[in-house]
C-alpha cells in the first residue's frame, strides 16, 4: 500500500482552487488502485495533511500526471503558503479491529 501525504499551510482559496480540487478528488477516487483519503489538521490548525492511500504506484503516477493536478501544482503558490509531499510504502497496518484505517 502507498501512502501519499500532502502537508500544507492553507492560504487564500478562489474559484479555480475549488474547481481543480473537486476534479482532482473525483479523478483520484476513480483510479483502480484508490483506497481512501483522510485529512488532519495540526493541533494549532496551521497545517493540514491530506492523506491518500493507494494499492499501487501506478495509480499514484496516474494521479501525478493528471492534467488538472499538473495545473494545480504549477499554481500552488496562489493557494498555499507552503507545502510538503511525503510518499511512503506501508508495510504493515494493524489495530484492535474497532477502527478501519485506511
Can you give keywords for this protein?
four-stranded antiparallel sheet; 3 helices; 102 residues; alpha+beta
Describe the protein's architecture and organization.
The protein has 102 residues and is an alpha+beta fold. Helix content is 32%, strand content 33%. It is built from three helices and four strands; from the N terminus they run βαββααβ. It has a four-stranded antiparallel sheet. β2 (34-41) and β3 (48-54) form a beta hairpin. α1 runs antiparallel to α3 (67-74). The longest helix is centred in the N-terminal third of the chain and has 16 residues, at 15-30. The chain is globular, with a radius of gyration of 14 Å. The mean pLDDT is 96.
Strand content: 25-35%
Question: What is the residue-averaged pLDDT?
Answer: 96
User: Could you say which overall geometry the principal axes of the C-alpha atoms support?
Assistant: globular
Give the fraction of residues assigned to helices. Answer: 25-40%
- Given as residue ranges, the uncertain stretches (5+ residues, pLDDT < 50) are none
Tell me the radius of gyration: 14 Å
Distance N terminus to C terminus? 10 Å
Q: Quickly count the helices.
A: 3
> What structural class is derived from the secondary structure elements?
alpha+beta
Number of strands: 4
Give the ordered list of helices and strands: EHEEHHE
Summarize the biggest pleated sheet.
4 strands, antiparallel
Sheet with the most strands: spatial strand order: 2-3-1-4
Amino acid at each position: 500500500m502507498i501512502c501519499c501525504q500532502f502537508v500544507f499551510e492553507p492560504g487564500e482559496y478562489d474559484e479555480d482552487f475549488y474547481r481543480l480540487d473537486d476534479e482532482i478528488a473525483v479523478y483520484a477516487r476513480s483510479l483502480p488502485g484508490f483506497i481512501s483519503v483522510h485529512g488532519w489538521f495540526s493541533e494549532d490548525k496551521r497545517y493540514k495533511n491530506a492523506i491518500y492511500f493507494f494499492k499501487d504506484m501506478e495509480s499514484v503516477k496516474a494521479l501525478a500526471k493528471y492534467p488538472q493536478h499538473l495545473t494545480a501544482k504549477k499554481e500552488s503558490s496562489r493557494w498555499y503558503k507552503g507545502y510538503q509531499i511525503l510518499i511512503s510504502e506501508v508495510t504493515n497496518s494493524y489495530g484492535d479491529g474497532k477502527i478501519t484505517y485506511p
